[in-house]
Amino acid sequence: MHYIKQEHAFVITNVYAQDNNTHNKNHKNLNIPIVLQEAQAKDMVNKIMENVIFERVMYYFILPVSYMLLELGDIVEIEHNNQKHLIRILNIAITIRHTIEIFGVMASHDNTDSK
Q1: pLDDT tens, 44-89?
Q2: pTM, full prediction
Q3: Cα–Cα nearest to 26, from 52, 2, 46, 44
Q4: Which of 6, 31, 45, 113 has most Cβ atoms within 10 angstroms of its Cβ?
Q5: Which contacts qualify for 20-25: CB closer than 8 Å, 24 or more apart?
Q6: Among candidates 37, 6, 30, which has minimal Cα distance to 16?
């Protein structure tokens, strides 16, 4: 990520983040036209990388219509095969069978407001 570094006369510099869990060699460059301290830039690029990693895992499941109060962006926790999964809801569809279909992605564990 390229950013304007506050500490050294506002020069354009960069920071990197890497996904150590895969052998993917794809590179993405981001140009952020804001002034940041180096620590802020590192935090930002690591958070962006974390979001990219989490959003690779997609979920689809069906719930009874009693869960109609769920909204897009909500974080839900489900358990499957004795493993808990935090899911951020991206899409909700009502079916003709009076159920709702949920589409989502893995949510960061930083989110604590799961339902």
Answers
A1: 887 777 766 666 678 899 999 999 899 999 999 988 889 888 899 9
A2: 0.55
A3: 52
A4: 45
A5: 21/53
A6: 30
Residue holding tokens 């050294």?
8
CB 48 within 8 A of CB 65: no
What is the end-to-end Cα distance of the chain in Å, rounded?
34
Residue 48, phi then psi, degrees to nearest 5:
-60, -45
Can you tell me the distance from the alpha carbon of 32 to that of 48, in angstroms, rounded to the nearest whole number?
12
The DSSP bridge pattern shows strands 31-36 and 2-5 to be: parallel
Q: What is the DSSP string of the chain?
A: -EEEETTTTTEEEE-----TTS--------EEEEEE-HHHHHHHHHHHHHHHHHTTSEEEEEEEGGGTT--TT-EEEEEETTEEEEEEEEEEEE-TTSEEEEEEEEPPTT-----
Distance CA 19, CA 5 (A): 24
| Residue 85: how many other CB atoms lie within 10 Å | 16
The sign of the dihedral angle between the CA atoms of 34, 40, 43, 47 is: negative
Predicted local confidence at residue 23, as pLDDT? 55
